[in-house]
């Protein structure tokens, strides 16, 4: 709980800085690069979160890895996280930054689960329909679940739209059992 509060504070700080510089998407891209590197290289995360490693060693590694790839302010933010021993909450900071950015830009993220990957046409139609329903620009995150049999399940925030065959069969079963 304390870590999430810390993550919110740091995410809000970098978000406000990005807004002041009118570079929200650039900051988001830089944080996404760092996040992706964190995911692709768990050794990096382990090293940066290790309390036995000297902060100066961590900083020099960050400068070497990200020095030319991210904005100076983002690198300084990462160095601050090292100084404050907060790198263990970087993933949460990154996720919260994305949420804040999406809210500011009027983007709704829809988690779409389907059996097979959606075609570009299906994605475009789904984004258009969801955009009309939400009144926002919609960004899709795709997931796979072979147990759905067919159709899609869409989740936007706390709304869930189940258009899957599995969902329809479950509804029919519940209706038959009720009678």
UniProtKB/TrEMBL annotation:
InterPro entries (alphabetical): ATP_synth_OSCP/delta_N_sf, ATPase_OSCP/dsu
Membrane topology summary: Peripheral membrane protein
Presence of the UniProt keyword Cytoplasm in the record: no
This protein's UniProt keywords: ATP synthesis, Cell membrane, CF(1), Hydrogen ion transport, Hydrolase, Ion transport, Membrane, Transport
GO MF annotation terms: hydrolase activity; proton-transporting ATP synthase activity, rotational mechanism
Compartments where located: Cell membrane; Membrane
GO CC annotation: plasma membrane; proton-transporting ATP synthase complex
TM annotation in the entry: none
One Pfam family per UniProt: OSCP
Function: This protein is part of the stalk that links CF(0) to CF(1). It either transmits conformational changes from CF(0) to CF(1) or is implicated in proton conduction.
Family the entry assigns: Belongs to the ATPase delta chain family.
NCBIfam families named in the record: ATP_synt_delta, PRK05758.2-2, PRK05758.2-4
Protein name: ATP synthase subunit delta
Organism: Selenomonas flueggei ATCC 43531
Primary gene name: atpH
